[in-house]
Amino acid sequence: MIELQQAGKTYRVDGRDIPALLPTDLRVERGEIFGLIGHSGAGKSTLLRLINRLEEPTGGRVVVDGEDVTALDAIGLRAFRRQVGMIFQHFNLLSSKTVAENIGLPLRFAGNTDKAGIARRVDALLARVGLEAHASKYPAQLSGGQKQRVGIARALATEPKILLCDEATSALDPQTTGQVLQLLADINRELGLTIVLITHEMDVIRRVCDRVAVMDGGTIVEQGNVGDVFLHPRHATTRRFVLEAEQVDENEQLEDFAHVGGRILRLTFRGEATYAPLLGRVARETGVDYSILAGRIDHIKDTPYGQLTIALIGGDIEAAQRRLGEAEVHLEVLRGEVSHGEGGAHG
Amino acid sequence: MGELLANVDPVEIWQATLDTLLMLGGSLLFTVLFGLPLGVLLFLTGPRQMFERRGLYGLLSVLVNALRSLPFIILLIVMIPFTVLITGTSLGVAGAIPPLVAGATPFFARLVETALREVDRGIIEASQAMGATPRQIVIDALLPEARPGIIAAITITAITLVSYTAMAGVVGAGGLGDLAIRFGYQRFQTDVMVVTVILLLVLVQILQSIGDRLVVHFSRK
């Protein structure tokens, strides 16, 4: 659906070339929600804007639905942009126009002069985002969450195939963020819209995205299905984002480990395995004792997952590990065994 | 009472008021007509804007600054041949309007440029993302968003024009300011001076409060 082929962007500042995005390849499939995560300056905002050419690439191509976007002239580009909705961190609504006028604006820009037709479309869009009662208000009279709903309705006005979200929830409180993400997920499912979103919060990725690319220093350092990337991060940047999302301090965790003996394992369950009473059974059958050091049970999009950090102490640790390994569990050894006495002395 | 305002001729005062209003109305109309597009052009060709053109912007800037740095009284005289060319006369209300417009347009254009710069850049980006043409961006997004600022700019320009009209007496345009200078100042008729100044004060007050009300009315923030 969306394909970047060695697309990159370099700014020229005071005679020096500053790369914002190194030549990058990327594929976004039709109907998926694709997340780009990175800190500010990682190049994610530039990459997003290459898709609708709000930023002109300085190299490479951007191909959408087989069409080379980089080759479009001004008229072609405007027609293309009507097929690509966009929402923004600070909403970018026109303060001088009512909610209904804001939502109808893309239709007017498209040359639509059928007032009754625009009004009907605006009504449908207002209903879609749950703002029927606010049609004649001005943006300043709305809350942040309502403003972003107007932004979404406006982005959908021309029935686009793609929706680009530029830090769409970064200016919102956690509860409103949840509602807006839910709305995006609904739109994706019901309209089959392809969504590309950028964020600096792993939690946003975890809640709505199918696939994710992690960006750092103007390039993609890791990408894949959200479940794989989130639960088994490989790149240091990805790990930092995951730890941030789980509010885990790596040093603190290592300090905690020093207080316990035995072998420390991290178990990752996905799907139905999350709810299976595995730990107790293995402990009974192999005579090991376990203590839980950290744990989290949550959802990645609609899939439940659990991640437990446990210490196995006493009994037949090898057998226990083998039994766990045979089950539908991903197992990592975080630390080998420490003798009982040593661990006990600290504990 | 009659003693106190012995030199005040109501007919003369009325005529002067009318002249001032005519000069103000006529020059304000053309100032906005020329200044608004010029301000938009300054904005669009300015640094880091949609149609950044260093050469054109530099040229317009120098021109605008030159006209603004010229004292109005000199502009009034320098422009006489040009004024005759377009109005057929260098005298009276008609003779005063071209120099008034020439003096106020660069000033107003700068204010418009500033008002447009105050509009959040995100508005332009969002409009571009919606597939708007540059013309649509200016007319349907930028100008409505800058409307309160532009109304404030018109108010300030109108009040500046009121003070310019006082000098238009040099070309025999008449008006309240001219009356104040000729009778009040040069003939020591203090009563005429006081009456005309009060009338000018009232005019400025009215202009300012109309402007303020319109700004509030069109501000949705």
TrEMBL record, chain A:
Q: Which GO terms describe its molecular function?
A: ATP binding; ATP hydrolysis activity
The record's CDD domains line, in alphabetical order, gives: ABC_MetN_methionine_transporter
Q: Extract the SMART domains matched here.
A: AAA, NIL
The protein depicted here goes by the name Cell division ATP-binding protein FtsE
GO CC term (a single one): plasma membrane
Q: Which family does it belong to?
A: Belongs to the ABC transporter superfamily.
Q: Which residues form the ABC transporter domain?
A: 2-242
InterPro entries referenced in this protein's UniProt entry, alphabetically: AAA+_ATPase (IPR003593), ABC_transporter-like_ATP-bd (IPR003439), ABC_transporter-like_CS (IPR017871), ACT-like_dom_sf (IPR045865), MetN_ABC (IPR041701), MetN_ABC_transporter-like (IPR050086), NIL_domain (IPR018449), P-loop_NTPase (IPR027417)
**Pfam families for this protein:** ABC_tran, NIL
What species was this sequence derived from?
Pseudothauera nasutitermitis
Domain of life according to the entry:
Bacteria
Q: Does the keyword Hydrolase apply?
A: no
Lineage of producing organism:
Bacteria, Pseudomonadati, Pseudomonadota, Betaproteobacteria, Rhodocyclales
Q: Which GO terms describe its biological process?
A: amino acid transport
Q: What the protein does?
A: Part of the ABC transporter FtsEX involved in cellular division. Important for assembly or stability of the septal ring.
Q: Which UniProt keywords apply?
A: Amino-acid transport, ATP-binding, Cell membrane, Membrane, Nucleotide-binding, Translocase, Transport
UniProtKB/TrEMBL annotation, chain B:
Q: Name one Pfam family in it.
A: BPD_transp_1
List UniProt keywords, sorted A-Z: Cell membrane, Membrane, Transmembrane, Transmembrane helix, Transport
What's its membrane topology?
Answer: Multi-pass membrane protein
Annotated organism of origin: Pseudothauera nasutitermitis
Q: What is its main location?
A: membrane
InterPro entries attached to this UniProt entry: AA_ABC_Transporter_Permease (IPR051322), MetI-like (IPR000515), MetI-like_sf (IPR035906)
Asked if the Swiss-Prot or TrEMBL record annotates the protein with the keyword Lipoprotein, the reply is: no
- What protein does this entry describe? ABC transporter permease
**Source taxonomy:** Bacteria, Pseudomonadati, Pseudomonadota, Betaproteobacteria, Rhodocyclales
